[in-house]
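Worked Example 4.2. Consider the chain below.
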Amino acid sequence: MTAMRAGWRACLGMVVLGLVASCGGGDDEGSERSWVGNIEAAMEAVEGVRGGDQEYFEVTANPQLTNVFVAVEDATAAVPYVFLDGELQEPAPVLDGASGFTFTLDDVEFDDEAILSTVEAELPGVTIDALSVEGGDGGTVRYVVSARSEQGGVLDITVGPDGTVFAVDPL
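Applying the procedure from the previous section yields the following structure tokens:
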């Protein structure tokens, strides 16, 4: 995990904890995965506000919200946004010193239904917390599922757009 991603995770953790504490209970099983579609919806909302195609470092969705990190200043800084309840919130202050691979909305293509259900089928007993889309080497896109094992460990699970598990990394 890059230092920038670790910093974002710490920032995300603070935001998510605050929002989760203020949110109500869970969803029924039929809507558990509906938040996966918020990735593209959040990116479309950002592009509507910012006026056109954008480059992104990372977009992470969970059942409560979606975080979007837009690459700015030739991918040396990031503008964080939160997409909550179908609405794009005002951007947070620019994060200087960002670096890493970027991607565009056109690069994001995954099966909303299969990406998480395949992980659950191949790794029974995990609890899925989030799905991230990240820029990868050579203009590729990485899909990373954050999950907890039954034993309490936290896992980053790199998957394909159809949910095929490529790697499981304990954190």
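Residues 74 and 144 are 25 Å apart (CA to CA). The longest strand covers residues 127-135. Compare this with Example 4.1 before moving on.
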